[in-house]
DNA sequence: CTAGCACCTATAGCGCTGCTATATGAAGTG
DNA sequence: CACTTCATATAGCAGCGCTATAGGTGCTAG
């Protein structure tokens, strides 16, 4: 109907879907709205994308690259934990800027069906947490920390989206963010404590070494040795 | 069609909706399924509940009382923070036991539309956090803590629901739970491994682990394993 | 040049959805 | 009995995701 009759229908469908997803206020977006705006008919949509979810996945993966670009751009500050904070804030900002797209990406939850985008976001976080682990700043396994932080990050973002705009208080985000990061990190921004009741420095060091070994393949050990070594390392770093 | 033709249609509709919501696997629940199971026709539903969402709200508020009952029953342990942990676990357990009902309650997120059940759950948490605050165990305002903890709690539960049953790792829950509670509390139970924040590498991490292992005897490895482990550690830490 | 083929798009419509205009029955009240 | 009020049913609307079928388009082989 409108957007650039020159472009191929596939692109027009993508743009129409993205536009409707970005601007639709509350109600759902139908295939008929999309095809009408794109100036094509239904079978064209299903020829190119299989079904509605396929089209949405395509829109999401485009939106995800935008998200990833935001996550990666201002990453290397030298302080991994500070970068984690920025990734958290960027995640929330993305969700609030494009709530409908965000809801399609992270809010469309069904039992036992894990969207690919969640795994990607998790990997992104884990990557950064690995750097923190290498720097000895992590208290737990990077993978577990990534899952935990992402779950809280999504929970906060969903809660903020569901609130009326005027009530949205970003302090909820920063507070939860710092709580999570503080809890998984070795930061001591709090009244000092003895090491008798928490993780020992052995565990912290083992986690750091584990992450460092996986980041830069050391050739000091043969592959079979390394395998056993890593297993022992895991055993040590998994002990409470 | 089945359930107790004696009962008034309103109750039969509620039970049918609850049953379908509990047993439906993946796909959505339609009004036709509900009315057929209840043995009534469509206008009856709309006469009593206004629309589909009204019926679901009614089911939810019944389910919520079940949820609240679980939250309140084993509450007064004398340790408010311990009670918060139980409320968290009960929340997750409820979500995993009745995922579809939970998704209707907490996962049906739309921009600027806050379900009543969220506010109720928040109030429940805040009430308990107030006790912690009175006992001087709280670091932040109970209201803020409740919002933050609930957001993380919902985020974790949604993430667990979206995972395949066999992959569900409740450690994600306990870890996030303790992170949140620890961060808002005045508890000082942490193993502080104060680390010079110099750039760590494989070597530095290996040296740190080596030192830490010798300082505190880890019993995760047998003595022979430990001997070989230390040798490899030495090989790594002497490289480059 | 034409035949064949692969790709893309449109017409028309199926079965489903949430919902309702209208009508009928039942129950209580003057 | 007449009247009102509440509760249920018949029948159907507009919208949904999706598709069987057919036709148009452009490329390549003979």
Automatic annotation (TrEMBL), chains A, B:
PROSITE patterns: HTH_TETR_1, HTH_TETR_2. One of its GO terms (molecular function) is transcription cis-regulatory region binding. Pfam families: TetR_N. Coiled coil: none annotated. Keywords: DNA-binding. This is Transcriptional regulator, TetR family.
């Amino acid at each position: 109907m409108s957007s650039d009759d020159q472009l191929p229908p596939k692109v027009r469908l993508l743009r129409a879907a993205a536009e409707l997803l970005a601007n639709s206020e509350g109600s759902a977006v139908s295939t008929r709205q999309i095809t009408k705006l794109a100036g094509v008919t239904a079978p064209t949509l299903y020829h190119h994308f299989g079904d509605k979810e396929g089209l949405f996945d395509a829109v999401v993966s485009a939106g995800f690259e935008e998200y990833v670009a935001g996550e990666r751009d201002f990453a290397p500050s030298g302080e991994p934990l500070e970068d984690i904070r920025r990734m958290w804030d960027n995640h929330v900002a993305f969700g609030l800027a494009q709530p409908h797209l965000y809801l399609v990406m992270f809010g469309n939850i069904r039992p036992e069906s894990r969207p690919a985008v969640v795994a990607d976001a998790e990997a992104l976080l884990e990557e950064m947490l690995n750097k923190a682990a290498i720097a000895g700043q992590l208290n737990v396994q990077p993978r577990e920390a990534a899952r935990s932080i992402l779950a809280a990050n999504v929970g906060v973002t969903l809660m903020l989206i569901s609130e009326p705009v005027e009530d949205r208080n970003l302090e909820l985000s920063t507070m939860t963010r710092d709580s999570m990061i503080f809890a998984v990190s070795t930061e001591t921004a709090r009244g000092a404590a003895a090491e008798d009741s928490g993780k020992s420095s052995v565990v912290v060091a083992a986690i750091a070494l584990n992450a460092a070994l996986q980041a830069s393949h050391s050739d000091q050990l043969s592959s079979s040795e390394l395998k056993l070594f890593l297993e022992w390392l895991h055993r040590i770093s998994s002990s409470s």
